[in-house]
Amino acid sequence: MSGLVIVVEDEEPIRAALVRLLQSACYTVRAFASGKDFFNSPMPDTPACLLLDMQMPDTTGMDIIKKLASIEVRMPVIFITGFGSIPMSVQAMKSGAREFLTKPVCPETLLSAVAEALESDQANLQHRNTQCELTARYNLLTPREQQVLEFIIGGLLIKQIAAELEVSEITIKVHKRQIMEKMQTKSITDLVRITERLHISQARGR
C-alpha cells in the first residue's frame, strides 16, 4: 500500500536506515531529527503514519503524541525505542499508539506495522483535512479580528466588546461581519463550534 511515512528519530544513522528501508518498499518518507522540526512542517493531507522514537534530546515520543492529540491531529503512531519496558509499552498503547517496537527492529515487522497503520489512517484523513481547513480560515483573521472573536465566543454583546476595546459599535459590527465571512459561518453557534475545535480561548473582560 502506498502512503506517507513520517520518521522522527534524532540518531542520524538510524534515521537514514529507516528511510532506506521504507523507500525500498515504495513509501514516500519525510524524516525529521526532532519533534520541533516535525511540528514546524505541514501536517500531511494524504494517508500517513508516524514512526516515532520514544526518547529524544528535545522531547519524548509521549510528548509528541500528546501534542498531536491537543491539536486534534489523528495519525497512527508506531513507537520505536532502544529501552523498551512493559510499563512504557502499556503507557504508549493507552496514549493511542498502534505499535511499540524495540530496536533493532525487524524489517518485516516494521513494514507490516506501517502497512496496517496506513490502511487505518484513511478514516482519519477527512478529520485532519477539515482541521487544517479550519486553521487556515482562522489564520485569515487580522490580530484585531482574532481579539474580537474571543470576545464574541465569550458571549459579549457588540456594545460590550466596543467598550472593552474602546472603539465604536460600528467598528465592532464591521469586524464581526469580516469574522463570519472569513470563518465561513452563518451563526454564532457554528462559530463557537469551530473555535472549540481550534482550542481558541474566550477573552475575559476587564
Question: Could you please describe the fold and organization of this structure?
Answer:
With 206 residues, this protein is an alpha/beta fold. The protein is built from nine helices and five strands. Strand 1, helix 1 and strand 2 form a beta-alpha-beta unit. Helix 6 crosses helix 8 (169-183). The model has no long low-confidence stretch (mean pLDDT 87).
SSE arrangement:
Blueprint: E1 4-8, H1 12-24, E2 28-32, H2 35-39, E3 48-53, H3 61-70, E4 77-81, H4 86-94, E5 99-102, H5 107-139, H6 143-153, H7 158-165, H8 169-183, H9 188-197
Helix pairs in contact: 6-8, 7-8
Give descriptors for this structure.
single chain; 206 residues; alpha/beta; 5-stranded parallel β-sheet; 9 helices
What's the quick description here?
The protein is an alpha/beta fold. Helices cover 55% and strands 12% of the residues.
